[in-house]
Amino acid sequence: MDIGKALTYVTEDERWITKLGIGAVIAFFSFLIIPAFFLTGYMVQIAQNVMAGHERPLPEWQDWGKLFMDGINLFVAMLVYTAPFWLLACCITFATVGSSGLSEMSEDAAAALFSSSFLISCCFFFILIIALMFLAPAVTIQYARERSLGACFQFGRVIGIARDNIGDIVLVVVVSFGISMVLSLVGAIPFIGWIIILAGNVYLYAVLGHLYGQIGAKLDGGMSKEEKFAA
Question: 225, 207, 227: which is closest to 1 by C-alpha?
Fold first, then answer.
């Protein structure tokens, strides 16, 4: 995996400032939820461009409908993947609250039950975070390769991508964490830092898209989906 390329390719595009600027404006309104779908869709398009071998994979901000659908499809996919975890967490919470409210239970017993349930929940969410660290990139790569929501639920392929590329995915996580740390430090600077962090978030999407594209290209032997079908 060429991490250096993923970190520097953005500036090789003649219009990179304009493209990041548009993305920063969209990122500013991400608290409205819907704009975040466009950013995710933009990341998917970058990954697809890398898989297709485009010399300048940073796309223009166009075909907004496709960007939105790609973003919302990935959101739905991740919602499905995390649903069992959230349901179990809700069951644990309701069971704990219900049991602790029983009149025949002593305060000590109720406190012990609550503490045990809280510890189980913490362990459970820790497992969730670790699992998502590997599954989320695999789901994104699978979606970018196949370009359909249904492909995200080909669980065997998704798990296979995560398992066979675990080293690369760890690198993706490390790079993402590193950029996020830098942005958090810069974000402490009033005003200027806030502007930089908006553009920096778009840059992070761009870097992740390139890294996902590299993994997808390796899986496909460097061929785009169209080339695979034509072969």
Answer: 207
